[in-house]
Design brief:
79 residues; alpha+beta; four-stranded antiparallel beta sheet; 32% helix
Length: 79
């Protein structure tokens, strides 16, 4: 099963920074089985656009993020 591990979260955060988004991705409760959280550190952006960007990156790892509520995301394994 695929998972969103620390290094992958780091890569996603680098992608967000590179694309000019003031957001970072964090695991909830130490692992992403409980979900993930986007945190805004500046200018608010369209969350759907950010999630699409992250999903385009994560598809090569057979992972997808889905908005649960607000900035809380669920991790879905595509395997």
């Amino acid at each position: 099963m695929s998972e969103l591990h620390f290094n992958l979260i780091f890569e996603v955060n680098q992608l967000l920074r590179k694309e000019g988004f003031d957001y970072t991705l964090h695991s909830i409760g130490g692992c992403t089985s409980c979900g993930a959280e986007l945190r805004c550190h500046g200018k608010s952006e369209d969350i759907d656009t950010i999630v699409k960007l992250m999903n385009d990156y994560l598809k090569k790892y057979f992972l997808r993020l889905k908005i649960r509520e607000g900035l809380i995301l669920d991790l879905i394994s595509l395997i």
